[in-house]
Write a structure and sequence with these properties.
Layout: H1 2-47, H2 50-72, H3 82-113, H4 119-155, H5 172-216
Helix pairs in contact: 1-3, 2-3, 3-4, 3-5, 4-5
């Protein structure tokens, strides 16, 4: 009799456990969806800012200058002919990066205006962010290569006054364009890193200020 009575009790316990687990799974899925939506909203807000338009214009302008000078003055930097290659490839990178940013900007504007953005639009935002990350890695690698060529030419006695001295000559437009691009890129990255660090410090400070009153109570 005791064994026969324990079976319904065990069944009730299992059912109760299942009822407890089911809401937990739903809550976890809801939290995951909310987290994904929050990340999407942040990406949309960042890409739809006016600063993105400025970045797109600067990127396309840089691409035009690099491609123009890299092609126009081809074979006019005998001390290091690969500087022209650096300008052309970096110009193509800038062009592609500008297109990716433009796609992200247009999609972000569409998502903000639409009450129910399509899944395709969300994937386009994600694709734009992934594309920017991939292009950033490529840019870093190529910038290091260009740095070796440009600064190496400077160390080897670069001069632009006498084109007959082919061992040390490089057209000033070619050399200084590559030099300025490298310096400006490093400067921009340094500013971005400093801004991110300062924002992180300020955020942590605000969090501590918000926790402190509760800890005293």
């Amino acid at each position: 009799m005791l064994q026969s009575q324990s079976l319904p009790n065990d069944t009730n316990v299992v059912n109760a456990d299942q009822k407890t687990i089911a809401p937990n799974i739903v809550d976890q899925e809801q939290q995951l969806n909310n987290a994904q939506k929050s990340r999407l909203d942040k990406a949309v807000n960042r890409l739809s800012m006016r600063g993105t338009i400025l970045q797109i214009c600067l990127t396309f302008s840089s691409a035009a200058v690099e491609l123009n000078y890299g092609i126009k003055y081809m074979n006019q930097c005998p001390i290091q002919p690969l500087i022209n290659v650096f300008l052309i490839v970096h110009g193509c990178w800038s062009l592609v990066n500008g297109m990716v940013l433009l796609m992200g900007f247009i999609t972000a504007k569409h998502v903000k205006r639409s009450p129910n953005p399509s899944r395709c639009a969300r994937r386009s935002i994600a694709g734009s962010l992934i594309g920017q990350l991939v292009l950033l890695v490529i840019c870093i690698a190529w910038l290091v290569v260009g740095q070796v060529w440009v600064f190496g030419a400077q160390v080897n006695g670069f001069q632009s006054s006498n084109s007959t001295q082919t061992a040390t000559y490089c057209h000033p437009t070619v050399f200084w364009t590559g030099f300025v691009i490298i310096i400006i890129t490093y400067a921009v990255w340094l500013i971005i890193i400093l801004v991110l660090v300062v924002r992180y410090i300020i955020k942590r400070h605000k969090i501590k200020q918000g926790i402190a009153p509760n800890e005293r109570s």
